[in-house]
Amino acid sequence: MKKALTITVLLLINSFFIVHANSTLKKSFSYQKPNKKQNRNTLKSGENLHQNEFLQSKNGLYKLILHQDGNLVVHYFTGKHIWSSNSKNKGGVRLLMRDDGILTIYKKNKSHAWSSSKKKNKGKPFLIMQNDGNAVVYINKNSKKKAVWSSGSFKGRKKYSPQWMQNSLDIIGDKKISEITIVGSHDSGANTRNGGTSLSNDCNTNTQSKNIFDQLSFGARYFDIRPVISNGKFYTGHYGKLNFNVGEEITSIQNKAFNTIKKGIEFSFDLIPGGKDWVKKELKNKFKFKTPSTNSWQGANGQKITEIVKDINRFTEVNSELIILNLSHSGNTDVGNADYRKFNKGEWDNLFKELSNIKHLYIASNKFKDINSLIINDLIRGKSTVIIIMDKENMIPKKYLNKGFFNKSSFKVIDKYSNSNNLNNMFKDQREKMNKNIDGYFLLSWTLTQDKNQIVKCLLDNKIRIPYIDVKEVYKKVKKSTEELIKEFGANIANLAEGKKWKKIKTGTKKIKKHKDITLFKRKSIIDLANEANKNLNKIENYITQNIKPNIIYVDNITDNKAAKLANKINQSVKYYTKKGSSLSSNKELKKGEFIVSPDGSFKLIMQDDGNLVIYNMFKKATWSSKTSRKSGVKLRMRDDGILTVYKKDNSHAWSSGKKKDAKPKGKYVLKMQDDGNAVVYDKKNKAIWSSKTNLKF
Q: Residue 367 to residues 9, 317, 371, 378, 411: CA-CA distances in angstroms?
């Protein structure tokens, strides 16, 4: 489907504790604001947990709830039950942390509905709902903590990564949005069908199998949401204008299917009742299809926009992550599919109003220009942020502009898909585009696109059943002896009938009553193509360098955290450096990740994340270093006494270019990275007082 109007929503969110259990909870939570009295993750010795009360992990992802029915359950924040005591409807009314280290659910008559163990322990016990999803009973004894029981419920969550960004803030926190890699979801709302055109079904329309909330839980942070209007309501949509003749494509598929049948039954069509005419008639009926106009719009509606808003708000209540929603391909489907026009200003205004229900809209200063330059820590540490970017300039009403809604010029994304259903061709295309766009915010479109043949095959039945063969009729038709018939056709007839070879055929009166089902062609849905691409995600790793990397890994059918793990791995392996010009004057600093570069761009002096100060030449080879990678260096300063110093966090020295006796306080000095590869410190008379002695050293 072709790409058109693009809107981008950037959501950056925060987590907070949750306090009330919903007594009717089955698959999802009802989250409320924290209450200090109830907001706890620990049950101490002698304390009770009554019906509908709970413990919650500090990260907000897990709850241990004693339900109204007496069942003790660990819930993941998605609402999924990941452990239970299996004490449902056994009369349990309270959970007690006994002083012998045993958890017990008591009935009203004080008998036991469930106990965690029979073994008693000495010491001071307590139950804790941990951040890893495990409920654990510990015993404090002689200043030592020992686990004596656990739910073991942390074992089944390996495919989720709801807080992967928050958990890697030590690596990405000080970086700009443009300096990290995240996961993107293509056609994110096309995970369900809420009505569509004649040429659409799940096979050629659905790009995802999970809703937005689940995709967020798997680690996706960039979402392609395409708003459409259907029956006056806002949905996501996956539509495109038909640019080929469906009838011609069906005829081509039918002709190939005829040959497939001939090959599949392995003998003359004359042996089938009705022969070739019967087969052709069956194919014609099977592929009978009302061909739409070549110029019509085809596709389907996905999730409602209101549902997506709820999914986002539900996720952000317990997670502090960066989320980008990219809204594109607007279309009003109520005007008829001859021409689904783009939204007009009034329709956009109504959509803005609906999107304004997303919490934590980002309010920018009047001088704000570039979202890419925003720092991750400033956005997701301790607060939530939502940014919505509009593709068209001057379409945002004043009441929204820079108050959660921004023009496209504030967030530029290089997004060029391959339009191929071949994995190798797609990979080659995207790799070449990534290499050419080193300095841009690059979206690596790891998606395979159906061709017209695959789109149409999704609409057709790909199996046919050949009727039984009357051996007597075959015998008469070919006028051969039974022995000759067996010799020439026996195995084939048997294969047709039962899928195995018969050793004997008795007489010409035997009727074979079974049928043979033949697969006419293989289908590849969008989801099938997505699974093929996703299995090969690891190919990307081999082409990542310090300067070449994707900002978004853009995929279909997100059902696990494989892409999130890859993004996290790239963030850990790639160091993003910030240019600070060609020189460093007195009292100026290079912090981790910053560098100065020679005027011709051939040499860089970088203050690396490992604390080492390094000069690299044009071939990315290190020509000099301060050898401070293991000395905890955090910044380089051009001191006003003429000495360069790499400082530690405590302001002690990890390295200096000179000794105290060489210092000349309160002077004017400058460090320059020269075109000859030499880093040199000059005084105010332009006299060199120190150099790396690396001029033209290759």
A: 20, 30, 12, 17, 15
Domain 166-242+297-415+439-448+550-570 in this protein, CATH class = alpha beta
Confirm if 38 and 19 have CB atoms less than 8 A apart: yes
| Residue 601 CB burial class (10 angstroms; 0-12, 13-18, ≥19) | exposed
The amino acid present at 119, given as its one-letter code, is K
| pLDDT (tens digit per residue) in 525-579 | 999 999 999 999 999 988 887 778 999 999 999 999 999 999 999 998 876 667 7
Nearest CA among 173, 121, 520, 106 for reference residue 321: 173
Residue ranges of alpha helices (H) inside 382-541 are 423-436, 452-457, 471-478, 482-485, 491-498, 526-534
Determine the Cα–Cα distance for residues 115 and 579; give it in Å rounded to an integer: 62
Q: Determine the Cα–Cα distance for residues 213 and 217; give it in Å rounded to an integer.
A: 6
- State the Cα–Cα distance between residues 359 and 18, nearest whole angstrom: 17
Pair 285, 278: CB distance under 8 Å = no
Say if strands 414-415 and 442-445 run parallel, antiparallel, or are unpaired: parallel
Q: Which residues pair with 227 in a beta bridge?
A: 236
The domain made up of 42-150 is a member of CATH 1.10.3210.10: no
Name the residue with higher pLDDT: 319 or 32: 319
| Res. 2: pLDDT tops 70 | no
Task: Report the alpha-carbon distance of residue 694 to residue 482 in Å, rounded.
Answer: 94
DSSP string across 561-628: SHHHHHHHHHHHHPPP-EE--SEEETT-EEETTEEEE-TTSS-EEEE-TTS-EEEE-TTS-EEEE---
Backbone φ and ψ for 443, nearest 5 degrees, come out as: -100, 115
Among 9-23, 114-128, 200-214, 285-299, the range scoring the smallest mean pLDDT is 9-23
Q: In the predicted model, what is the mean pLDDT of residues 211-222?
A: 94
pLDDT on residue 501: 36
List the 589-591 sheet strands across, edge first. 589-591, 635-638, 644-647, 653-656
Each residue of 63-93: pLDDT tens digit?
A: 999 999 999 999 988 788 889 999 999 999 9
- 578-691: CATH topology: Agglutinin, subunit A (2.90.10)
Strand partners, 222: 184, 324
d(Cα 293, Cα 445) in Å, to the nearest integer? 30
> What's the rounded Cα separation, in Å, for the pair 655 and 528?
56
Q: Which residues contact 84 (CB under 8 A, 6 or more apart)?
A: 71, 72, 73, 74
The C-alpha atoms of residue 610 and residue 376 are separated, in whole angstroms, by 20
Say which residue the tokens 């204008």 belong to: 241
Q: Do 42-150 and 578-691 have matching folds?
A: yes
